[in-house]
Amino acid sequence: MQDTKKDDIAVRIGTRGSPLALAQAHEVKDRLLCAHKNLSDDAVEIIVMSTQGDRILDRALSDIGGKGLFTEEIEEALIKGHIDIAVHSLKDMPTSLPEGLELACYLEREDVRDAFISAKAAALKDLPAGAHIGTASLRRQAQTLALRPDVTVSTFRGNVQSRLKKLDENIVDATYLAMAGLNRLGLKDDRIHPIEVDEFLPA
């Protein structure tokens, strides 16, 4: 099969390069192809981009600029016409968009719940005093300490796979992940314990 020429590309989708971001971009691509039968698979290109939030992993987001760190480079590419669509997780987006951009559409919401991830306990309440929980989310940190002021909470960043790897290495005793991301990646693991929304407020 011949390579697709640039002139043959009808839609360019910009996304981060994590497995979850790519899964979401491919879902958007599949929806476009389903809705527009005249488009071939090769006509919709996924362009992977690196953001500052992906590159700086040793500091809390609140210390280095907030949520826009995951979207700024991609939005700049959109404004400059290098891509036609940007695909983000809504939780990563700042409340105000740059001039000239709009939130055009969004997919149906997945499972809204957070998941407690640990091999040592099935729930936060079952961890021993002094247990170490890793999460970069201020929302999750606040709720964790409100429910269990006797545990230690520290900043813990990275994509889904890297956080699970850190859990394997016993860097922390537990962490949290969004059930939506786990479902989109098709991950099944005995350490995944969904938390009901009346127990732990999701994003």
Q: What would you note in describing this structure?
A:
- It is an enzyme of class 2 (transferase).
- One of its GO terms (cellular component) is cytoplasm.
- The protein has 203 residues and is α/β, with parallel strands linked by helices.
- It has two domains: 6-92, 3-Layer(aba) Sandwich (D-Maltodextrin-Binding Protein, domain 2); 114-194, D-Maltodextrin-Binding Protein, domain 2, CATH 3.40.190.10.
- It has helices spanning 19-35, 52-55, 61-64, 72-79, 138-147, 160-168, 179-185; strands spanning 11-15, 44-48, 85-86, 114-117, 132-134, 152-154, 174-178, 192-194.
Describe how the helices and strands are arranged:
Layout (H helix, E strand, L loop, with lengths): L10 E5 L3 H17 L8 E5 L3 H4 L5 H4 L7 H8 L5 E2 L27 E4 L14 E3 L3 H10 L4 E3 L5 H9 L5 E5 H7 L6 E3 L9
Parallel strand pairs: 1-2, 1-3, 5-6, 5-7
Antiparallel strand pairs: 4-7, 4-8
Helix pairs in contact: 1-7
